[in-house]
Specification:
By secondary structure, the chain is α/β, with parallel strands linked by helices. The chain contains 8 helices and 5 strands; from the N terminus they run αβααβαβααβαβα. The chain has helices at about 1-30, 45-50, 60-65, 80-95, 105-110, 115-130, 150-160, 190-200; strands spanning about 40-45, 70-75, 100-105, 135-140, 165. The chain is globular and about 40 Å long. The protein starts with a helix and ends with a helix.
């Protein structure tokens, strides 16, 4: 019995060691991790804006409470990657963030923008922020019937550039009426769960 307990204890120690090593290696791949971030900007589309709920029920407000850090909501209705790229410079200049959390791309799908163009725009957005020492966090959202390739391509881009990818942040939402206001957008509980997923993905980095 004692030998079994020692064996199990050893396995736990070894497992914890490898988990810690994995987290450390993951951190090395993410660029511009701030030691003590004071300003976070949520930048993106209707999912950032909080379509369908009150201003204090969207994910940026909930994320602010979870992190204990200021999170400015800079979401815009019907934002595409192209329109986001167009206003990125002014948003950065007026906020000077340490971290930018992005939800972008779904409006591109609705606009029938080719995946290649979405990736091109996202790469420009990511690089603009990374070159200014901003940590970039991308929350992946994959609506029904889009397929896995779309989000997989974005996750690969994030990995290549050093962007923290957290996805799919709306997994299992789409057919759950208790989490949605309509076919596309979450209710307050849905946005709360999105904020929880983002916080869980970010918490080990600062």
């Amino acid at each position: 019995m004692m030998k079994n307990l020692v064996f199990v204890g050893g396995l736990i120690v070894v497992s914890l060691f490898f988990v810690r090593q994995f987290l450390e290696q993951s951190k090395k791949k993410v660029k511009n991790i701030p030691e003590n971030p004071t300003r976070i900007v949520a930048f993106g589309d209707d999912y950032t804006l909080g379509k369908g709920v009150g201003s204090h029920e969207g994910y940026p407000s909930v994320l602010q409470d979870l992190l204990g850090k200021t999170v400015e909501n800079m979401g815009v209705k019907d934002e595409t990657t192209a329109s986001a790229l167009h206003r990125l410079e002014s948003v950065f200049a007026s906020n000077k963030p340490d971290i930018v959390v992005l939800t972008l791309g779904v409006a591109d799908i609705n606009s029938r923008l080719p995946l290649e163009k979405t990736l091109e725009n996202l790469e420009k957005i990511f690089l603009y922020l990374l070159e200014r020492n901003v940590m970039v966090v991308y929350g992946g959202i994959s609506p029904p019937k889009v397929g896995d390739n779309w989000l997989m391509a974005i996750s690969q881009l994030c990995g290549t550039l050093g962007v923290l990818y957290i996805g799919d942040i709306m997994h299992d939402f789409w057919d759950n009426k208790t989490l949605m206001t309509d076919a596309l957008f979450p209710n307050a509980e849905g946005y709360r769960l999105i904020a929880n997923k983002l916080e869980e993905g970010m918490r080990d980095y600062f």
